[in-house]
Amino acid sequence: MSDNQEYLENLGHLEKRLKSYEGRPSAVAGVAKDPVNLPMIRHWCEAMGDTNPAYNGPDSVAPPTMLQTWTMGGLSGHTGRTQAYDELLALLDEAGCTAVVATDCEQEYVRPLRPGDEITFDAVIESVSERKTTKLGTGYFVTTRMDVRVGTDLAGTHRFRILKYAPARPREKPQAARPGPRLRPRPVVNRDNAGFWEGVRQHRLLIQRCTGCGTLRHPWLPGCATCGGPDWDTVEASGAGTVYSYVVLHHPPFPAFDPPHAVALIELAEGVRMISNVVGVPYDKVRIGLPVRLEFRTYDDELVLPVFRAGQEEVA
Predict the structure, then answer these.
(1) Pairing outcome for strands 273-279 and 304-309
(2) For a Cys staple, 123 with which of 26, 97, 192, 252, CB 3.0–4.6 Å?
(3) How far is residue 176 from each of residues 169, 170, 282, measured CA to CA in Å?
(4) What is the Cα–Cα distance from 281 to 286, expressed in whole angstroms?
(5) What are phi and psi of 50, to 5 degrees?
(6) Number of Cβ within a 10 Å radius of residue 49
């Protein structure tokens, strides 16, 4: 038997063992450590900046995206956990897939959770992928599915996916490699924020405004965090603002930037905040409360970004 044939045979044996864990429970009759409660809901909403009135008061419900929060076991773990998931991870470790990264999760919401609800859950190893090669390395995607219940009622389903992989070896840089162009990173444009970037291209800084309650918001979102309304229009920022907070970046170096440089959280006159660069002053002259004014800077043939300029007389 050739080395390649032996490798393929061992790989097939490994994947058969991995597949045998599909459908096996990773938690049975798990019980949440605490019932759904207002303090945890308040902490979550404060962290997320979510002021929707549905999440406070005597008739409040928990934000749907908190679904997994109620099932977390903390440092001491939770009851009902089986050995199947640990065995699966150990098998992958033995195969050289010693690194792990969470890739994504999917949630389905069936009924709202309310303060006082007692949570139980069951979890199953839903799938183990075939061998996959990524930029991180080669390994397997493992998906677990957790069904969250209140009594006998299904409240929601949480799918969680990880990649267990063998890290790829770093590639050696060609000795005669020439430095590439010093291009600024491109913004991620999607269906929710495309209008903002189209406005920037036209040298207009557009702020979303909920047509239901009038709340302004930035960054752009598909719905209003205050009233939950999906409809919106825009207002154009006046361009006036102040530095609300800032950091000075020294590391890591990046070819498109010359560290150290300041990155600031700008509070616009309209009341919303956005992250940008402060120009016109040295990085060590940026201060909280510094008045700034919007301008648009063209970095190359494709990229226009909003930045904020402080005059020298304002920082002298």
Answers:
(1) parallel
(2) 26
(3) 21, 18, 35
(4) 7
(5) -95, 110
(6) 8
DSSP per-residue string spanning 255-278: TT--SSEEEEEEEETTS-EEEEEE
Residue 115 has pLDDT above 70, yes or no: yes
User: How many structural domains is the chain composed of?
Assistant: 2
Residues 276 and 158 placed together within one structural domain of the fold: no
Q: Which residues contact 307 (CB under 8 A, 6 or more apart)?
A: 276, 277, 278, 279, 294, 295, 296, 297
Q: Tokens 């120009």 — which residue?
A: 279
What's the CA gap between 118 and 111, in Å, rounded?
14
42 in a domain, yes or no? yes
- Mean pLDDT for the chain? 89
Domain ranges, residue 233: 194-314
pLDDT of residue 265 exceeding 50: yes
Tell me what pLDDT residue 316 has: 45
In the chain, the percentage of residues whose pLDDT exceeds 90 is 69
- The structure tokens listed for 193 are 């924020």
Q: Is the pLDDT of residue 211 over 90?
A: yes
8 Å CB contact between 266 and 243? yes
- State the DSSP string of 57-74: STT----GGGGGGGG--G
Q: 84-94 and 3-19 helices cross at what angle (nearest 10)?
A: 170
Beta-bridge mates of residue 143: 127, 161
Continuous H helices in the chain: 3-19, 38-48, 84-94, 194-201
Lowest mean per-residue pLDDT among 100-104, 172-176, 279-283: 172-176
Question: Do residue 154 and residue 200 come from a single domain?
Answer: no
